[in-house]
Amino acid sequence: MKFLIKKREHKYYLLISVLLIILFFLGYRLVTNKITSEAEDVVEVVIKQYAKEKKNILEFDFNDFNKFISDTQKIIENSYNLDENQLKNKIILNSELVFFEDNIDASFVYFLKENKITFSSFFGDKENEFEKKTLTKAYSLNGEKLVFDSVINSKGKIYYRKTMICKVPNGSVIVFGYDINLLKYWSYFSQKHNGKGGYVIVTNKEGVCLLHPETKYIGKLVNSFFDKTSLNQIYKELEKKEGKKSQQIKTIAISEYLNLEVLRYYDVIHVGESELVSITSFPINIFIKESVNNIKQYLLWVGFLVLLSFILILGFSRNKLRYQYFKMLKYEQEKQKLAISNEQYQQKNAKLQLSQLRKKLNPHFLFNSLNSLHVLIDIDKETSQEFVLKLSEVYRYLLKDKDANFATVKEELYFLKQYFFLNKIRFNNKINLEISYCNTDNVLLKKIPFLALQTLAENAIKHNKITKIKPLLIEVLIEDDRITVSNYYNPRINKKEISHSIGLSYLNNFYNFHGISSFKTVISEGKFKCYLPLLSK
Predict the structure, then answer these.
(1) What is the pTM of this model?
(2) C-alpha R_g of the chain
(3) pLDDT tens per residue across span 479-500
(4) Which fold, 380-533?
(5) Rounded distance between C-alpha atoms, residue 133 and residue 254, angstroms
(6) Can you tell me the distance from the alpha carbon of 183 to that of 235, in angstroms, rounded to the nearest whole number?
(7) What is 45-286's CATH superfamily?
């Protein structure tokens, strides 16, 4: 009976698969033309957007070049409280700033009065021929201000010169300008904004090329770009489209540069008071036809894969999901067991190491303390009585059963002072302790590992030379979030180093168990330093 049911289910799955395949091919056949049309529209939208991005980048860069003209205009407009020297200094400073721009090779300033040059300043290479043309315009200035651009070909370099001529109230005429190296700027632009298959050129209103991937065209008239649509038509058409979503003119032409049929987008770049034209070209075969064919092929393959995936998922999804569920459940259970085992191990290890520290401290420390007391009784009875009291307090603290091996900063500091008092007598005042606070608010109630400060003090005493000339100084700095224990690193010579791995390992395991990674020890600037993070719980 079960066999028959399974057989029917298989037939049902097979029938559904065959129907899906038939429907897929019918649907693909019906919508192929629609897909092609939509794909062409999508590709064209992408191309238009890319052309717009290029235009926006160029508009930003050329307006960035133009900002120095605007800055100088503002300086002159706000100069009513300035004398001529102050105005001159401000404009010269602006001219010097212009010269230090990466793509600007020269900047100049002239002050004229009664058709005579009263002052001039030039940064960069000076061109007398173009200087005369500029000054001729200044001499014949009719209005209050004139801003103009020109393209200059000089010594194998092509410059885009920005010039402003302005008359001030005292009758002087100020000429301010600078030369943008177009070849240098094109090198920068083409490297930073390398294309996605298309290329862009820029011309001024006269059709002189400012940017072109073939640099031999820069500085020359490029009339071939305006065969199908003139510059005047471009400006008129774009004025009509002002305020609409699309402000680009589209044409199809043969590119002299690529020798291919291209789709061209014309747009106007507004730069201060002047306008430039950006022309972005895209090979049609590459961008439209190949893209559409690729989309159709990808769609066909995606359809096959989706169909195949659906059939496979339909048959195996239940078993796969069931298998994954039990596998994940088992994995989570094992993960929890491992986490619990790891915590238990770290806790037991920390307790074991603390126990070893206590066992190590008790007999060894007691033996040294009794020897010191034996000597002290005959010398200073009052100090010996205090010594006995401190020793009893130390052992009372050691015998405390601390929950989770925690102790407050206050408790540990108190214990450290008692412990240090005993050792100071033992070493005849050759060791010193300094405790300093950055902030005492609530810090004394925070917690650190039990015996942490004593462990670090004991390590310092054991592993460093202690003499009258070089006594040992242990510094304890208490901050908001940690305690820094440091001492000058002066290791003992001609003596086997006694391992202090138990003490530091205990502290390291304690912090690891509580998920704190900021515990560390370093030797720097001649000091051994240990950083103990503070715990709030």
Answers:
(1) 0.49
(2) 43
(3) 989 999 999 998 887 655 445 5
(4) Heat Shock Protein 90 (3.30.565)
(5) 38
(6) 27
(7) PAS domain (3.30.450.20)
